[in-house]
Amino acid sequence: MRIITELCDICGTCVSVCPADAIIVEEFQVSIDNARCIECGKCRQVCPARAIEGDVK
Fold this sequence. Notes:
Elements: E1 2-3, H1 13-17, E2 23-26, E3 29-32, H2 42-46, E4 52-53
Antiparallel strand pairs: 1-4, 2-3
C-alpha cells in the first residue's frame, strides 16, 4: 500500500481504521509503514480523496 501524496488531504481517516497501526502522520504528511501493514485495504476503502493505492491480500 502507498499514499499518493499529491491527492492526500491529511484528514486522518485512514489512521483511525488501520488495525496494524501502520499509518503515520508527521510533519504534514501521511505515510504507511509497509513492514507493519497487513494489506487489509481498510485504509483504501475509507479514504475520501482516493489517495491510497495497492493490492489487498
